[in-house]
Amino acid sequence: MTAFDRRDVGLLLLRLGAGGVLAAHGAQKLLGWFGGHGIEGTGKFMESVGYRPGRASATAAGLAEAGGGTLLALGLATPAAGAAAAGAMAGAAAVHAPNGFFNQEGGYEYAATLGLAATGLAVTGPGRLSLDHALGHALDRGWMVPAALGATAAVTAMVVGARNRRLRTPEQDDAAAAFDAQESLSGE
């Protein structure tokens, strides 16, 4: 069958929408476009929320968003593109999580939505209206989905975990040490 069906059109619309928003977000960080602060300003912000070094964190987030978003919009290397964008959004969600879920309260709703859309596209694939399809899915193989999502999840967990450790208060450190001591005494 050569005719495109509504699934292909729906995936194209989802890719263009989510990918375009992610690419614009990345351009704010990398280039200062669309009212963004560029690498310097974003780097300072990243430092202030615990992602260090700030400039490297801003560059990584900007590349994951701009690169992942552009590739998603094009439907190229969809597993890697979706995973990269999802990782960046998980890092953003970690910053907003203390504010609750909803975006109007500064919560993680927006980042979670973009991250889930990117993950869904990585899993589902780009559809037939994509560069991946035109290239015979050379960069969109089934094994690439768990590999890309697994690698991104591991790196994201390390980065967010390091950030969370940096942001812990001395009281939280004392409580964690007491918990660890209790665990070792109980043999668990």
User: What percent of the residues sit in helical stretches (DSSP H or I)?
Assistant: over 70%
Q: Mean of residue pLDDT?
A: 92
Number of strands: 0
Cα Rg: 19 Å
Cα(first) to Cα(last) distance is: 58 Å
What characterizes the major β-sheet? none
Task: Identify low-pLDDT runs.
Answer: none
List the keywords:
single chain, 188 residues, mainly alpha, 8 helices, globular
Task: Explain how this protein is built.
- This protein is mostly helical and 188 residues long.
- The protein is 73% helix and 0% strand.
- It has helices at 6-31, 38-48, 54-74, 78-96, 109-124, 131-134, 144-167, 170-186.
- Helix 1 (6-31) packs antiparallel against helix 3, helix 3 (54-74) crosses helix 4 (78-96) and helix 4 (78-96) packs parallel to helix 7.
- The model has no long low-confidence stretch (mean pLDDT 92).
